[in-house]
Amino acid sequence: MSSIIVLGAGMVGSAMAIDLANNHSVTLSDFNTDALDKAVAKCGGLTPIQLDVTDKSALQATIAPFDLVVCAVPGFLGFETLKSIIEAGKNVVDISFFPEDCLELNELAQEKNVTAIVDCGVAPGMGNIILGYHNERMELTDFECLVGGLPKVKKWPFSYKAPFSPIDVIEEYTRPARYVENGELVVKEPLTDCEYIDFEGVGTLESFNSDGLRSIIFTMPHIKNMKEKTLRYPDHVEYIKVLKESGFFSETPIDLNGESVSPLDFTSKILFNEWKLGEQEEEITVMRITVKGTNGDGESKTIVYNLHDEYCTETNVSSMARTTGYTATAAANLFLDGLFAEKGVFPPELVGKHENCFHYFIKYLEERNVIYKKESF
């Protein structure tokens, strides 16, 4: 039995801690003691500890005794937290999805003899793992990831609920979207190139450009066409564009009755209750991964993986927590089982390229009823 500390007791962090507690000694940390109390009420096997990850010395002292760190802090804290973990010489699985380039920490991780598996959720995460696996077995020309987390009940106007803070969602709507077309990096405004696509069990969804390719732009430069698009219910994009064009996402403070107010902070506050996913509110995760290329015989081949996952009423765990968190806990167990021991910073495609690792992820998720259905043609 290994000792693991999970940083972050939010919806995904607590689900990961509970899953890992089945086979390991798990400590769960957060600055918010209410979040810790909620998690411990669900699973008495967790050891809670209050921790401010921005206090570097406290963070490094706290994680020192553990065999592995699993990092699930908000994105804006992610890069510096991961850097502190690596500087402390601790192996880590990270799902904080920070905007900075994780590969900047590769040299530091190698110096510290650390294995850091990053971006290890659903997307980025399993999409990368699938890509990495098939990249070793095919001459790939195309990669597409369509993904979204959606409430089962549509509530006007946004028909959306967020399993994390609105400010992290708004980041998807404001950060320029990068994709690769004919071997060239293309940068477009997010919320563009909207298309309607049908998904079994859900119906018609709206896809739009978002900046989700992340590391594969650099680790898979030979693939000529790569794109990631976010999925929402129809009309969501129109309402978001109205807010964006009206200045509600601006970070430039405005004067309001003598007070300096950030429109983005104000909007996040308003949307927090509108988008807040209820403790037992049912939601779904939809993802379609498509890879195209030629096999060893030079024959054209298309492989599609479809995921349709729903809130689990048995465990009261959200679909986003299941699909994101259990990918990360699979990586944690895979590392602790000795299946991946390379040193440095590794996005999931560099782990999934190994056949035994890829099948470990698929089997681990299947055991938790997170099923990727594969089609080839």
Write the layout of secondary structure elements.
Blueprint: E1 3-7, H1 11-20, E2 25-30, H2 33-42, E3 47-50, H3 56-63, E4 68-71, H4 75-87, E5 92-94, H5 106-111, E6 115-117, H6 126-135, E7 139-151, H7 166-174, E8 177-181, E9 184-188, E10 195-199, E11 203-209, H8 216-219, E12 225-232, H9 236-245, E13 254-256, E14 259-261, H10 263-275, E15 283-294, E16 300-310, H11 319-336, E17 344-346, H12 349-352, H13 355-367, E18 372-376
Parallel strand pairs: 1-2, 1-4, 2-3, 4-5, 5-6, 6-17, 7-12
Antiparallel strand pairs: 7-15, 8-9, 10-11, 11-12, 13-14, 15-16, 16-18
Helix pairs in contact: 1-11, 3-4, 11-13
Can you tell me the residue ranges where pLDDT is under 50 for at least 5 consecutive residues? none
CATH topology-level fold name of the largest domain: Dihydrodipicolinate Reductase, domain 2
Biggest sheet character? 7 strands, parallel
Figure out the total of helices: 13
**Whole-number mean pLDDT:** 95
The CATH superfamily label of the largest domain reads Dihydrodipicolinate Reductase, domain 2
Fraction in beta strands: 25-35%
**Anisotropy-based shape:** globular
Instruction: Count the E strands.
Output: 18
- Count up the domains: 2
Percentage of residues in helical conformation: 25-40%
Question: How would you classify the helix and strand content by structural class?
Answer: alpha/beta
Distance between the termini: 43 Å
CATH architecture of the largest domain: 2-Layer Sandwich
The main sheet orders its strands as 3-2-1-4-5-6-17
What is the CATH first-level class name of the largest domain?
A: Alpha Beta
Rg: 20 Å
